[in-house]
Amino acid sequence: MSSEDREELKGKVLHLKDLVAYQEGSIASRMIINKKAGSITIFSFDEGEGLSEHTAPFDAVVTILDGECEVWVSGESHPMCEGDTIIFPANAPHALSAVTRFKMILVMVKE
User: Fold this and answer.
1) pLDDT tens-digit profile, the chain (111 residues)
2) Can you give the residue range of the structural domain that contains 18?
3) Which of 19, 21, 67, 75 is 20 to 30 Å from 43 at the Cα level?
4) pTM (2 decimals)?
């Protein structure tokens, strides 16, 4: 999505989970804000898809918009479903896996 497309979202009522569609056998994403201070991205994961363990240099807030997933933060497992939110601390190893198809919003807060 280009910055021009993101501009078109401003000032409108949005239904976040409708901003990115499920795609069979894959992960899809749509960045809706991208600024020096941080970014907001909506993701969809097909069942069985996920992200392997990694770290990020900034705190990140994840809220589940639809479906169910399993999240790991510093080796601790957390089952999550629609409406649940978790904060990934900066530099903490984290991963996730789709239990069912699921959608999430990722808010990356940069220092």
Assistant:
1) 566 678 888 888 999 999 999 999 999 999 999 999 999 999 999 999 999 999 999 999 999 999 999 999 999 999 999 999 999 999 999 999 999 999 999 999 997
2) 3-109
3) 75
4) 0.92
Q: Total structural domains in the chain?
A: 1
Tokens at 13, concatenated: 């009522």
**Nearest-angstrom CA–CA distance, 36 and 78:** 30
Give the separation between CA 58 and CA 40, rounded to whole angstroms: 13
First vs last C-alpha separation in the chain: 24
37-69 core/surface letters (b: 16 or more CB in 10 A; e: else):
ebbbbbbbbbbebbeeeeebeebbebbbbbbbb
